[in-house]
Design goal:
By secondary structure, the protein is an alpha/beta fold. The chain is globular. The protein has one domain: Class I glutamine amidotransferase (GATase) domain (Rossmann fold). The mean pLDDT is 95. The chain contains six helices and 14 strands.
C-alpha cells in the first residue's frame, strides 16, 4: 500500500508538491494507476489548467471512481487549486462542465463587485486567509496567514459548513474547504513557504 499518493492525471505541478512533502521528511509516490489510488493511505490531487481538460484526463485514466470511493470512505484527501474546484458539481469555465460532484456548489469566474473598480484576473500572488472553522491541517497556522494564489475561478459551496477559510478579493471567496477528512485549498501550500509546509506536514501526519 502506498502511504501518500500524488495523483498524476497529466496536469498539475506534481513534482513541486512531491518535493515539498519530501522536504518535510515524508515519502510520496506520483502515479496515474487507479489501483494505487484505491489502496493509498492518503491522496493529494493537485492541479493547474482548465477544468474541462482536467476532468477529461481523470476520466480517461480511470481515476474518477477511485477518487470518489476514496473520499466516500473517509480517508485523508487534499485537493490543491484545480484539485479543489473539481470536487464540486459544476464549473462555468469556458461553458458548463460537470465536476466530481463530491460537494454541492459551482465554480465561477471572478467579477468586480457592482459599481466597484476593475478586478485584475487572474488573482495571483500572496493573500491572507480568514479561518472560519477549525481543521486539523491548519493546526499551528495563525489566522490571517498568507498563502500563494494563482486562479481566475473560485468555488461557491452550497453548504457553508464546509468552508474552512475565506480570502478577500473583490469580496470574500472560499479559499479552503474541510468535510471530515476531505480538505482542499484554492491556494498552493507547496508554494507558500512556512505556512504552506506546516499545512502539508499536518496532512501527512493525519
Amino acid at each position: 500500500m502506498t502511504n501518500l499518493l500524488i495523483i498524476d492525471y497529466g496536469m498539475g505541478n506534481l513534482r513541486s508538491v512531491q518535493k515539498a512533502v519530501e522536504h518535510l521528511g515524508f515519502q510520496a509516490a506520483i502515479s496515474d494507476d487507479p489501483a494505487l489510488a484505491a489502496s493509498a493511505g492518503r491522496i493529494i490531487l493537485p492541479g493547474v489548467g482548465a477544468f474541462a481538460d482536467a476532468m477529461a484526463c481523470l476520466a480517461a485514466k480511470g481515476l474518477v471512481e477511485p477518487v470518489r470511493a476514496f473520499i466516500r470512505e473517509g480517508r485523508p484527501f487534499l485537493g490543491i487549486c484545480l484539485g479543489l474546484q473539481m470536487l464540486f458539481e459544476e464549473s462555468f469555465e469556458d461553458g458548463r462542465h460537470r465536476g466530481l460532484g463530491i460537494l454541492e456548489g459551482t465554480v465561477e469566474r471572478f467579477a468586480p463587485p457592482a459599481g466597484g473598480p476593475p478586478l485584475k484576473v487572474p488573482h495571483m500572488g500572496w493573500n491572507s486567509i480568514a479561518i472560519r472553522r477549525p481543521a486539523p491541517v491548519l493546526e499551528g497556522v495563525p489566522d490571517g496567514s498568507h498563502f500563494y494564489f494563482v486562479h481566475s475561478y473560485y468555488v461557491k459551496p452550497a453548504d457553508a459548513s464546509v468552508i474552512a477559510a475565506e480570502t478577500d478579493y473583490g469580496g470574500p471567496f472560499t479559499s479552503m474547504i474541510r468535510k471530515g477528512n476531505l480538505f482542499a485549498t484554492q491556494f498552493h501550500p507547496e508554494k507558500s513557504q512556512a505556512c504552506g509546509l506546516r499545512l502539508l506536514g499536518n496532512f501527512c501526519r493525519l
